[in-house]
# Entry
Amino acid sequence: MYSFLRRLVTFITLILVQVFILDKIHLFGYATPMLYVWFILTLGTDEGRNKTMLWAFAMGLAIDFFGNTFGIHAASATLLAFVRPALIRLFFIRNDGETFVPGIQSMGAGAFRGYALLGIVLHHIVVFVLEYFSFDYLVPMAISLGSSVVLTMLFVMAVERIFGHRS
# Structure
């Protein structure tokens, strides 16, 4: 029960921070951090794919609701939650049945950086392809994608260092 309440508080806090603070940041007119991805990346492996996808969909839907983005974040967050088990297997070797919370403490800094970066890139590709929805804007989309990935990665690593789960 304590774990669920802690997760719910984190969920609500990240939605509020994303909607009221981070969505207002457009560094150089392109880069917008999407810190809510950290929540999806660091859900425990004991949750299972369906629960993780449900959490991700709910978070994306809430951000879409407040940001008036018509399902872009819900789709990208749900896709990230769907591929997350494969990303974890790619960067972290563990025994079958072993549960853990992905993070710097459990995976190591290098493995977590790779896992987070690949997850963030995948998430952001979906967000920006759906947002621009045209190849006429390929250069601005690529600039927004690259700069937002870098900014989000910096935010995720900072938050993970400060608030990351202890194994």
In short: The chain has one domain: 2-163. The chain has a mean pLDDT of 92. Helices lie at 2-20, 37-41, 48-67, 72-91, 104-107, 109-132, 138-163.
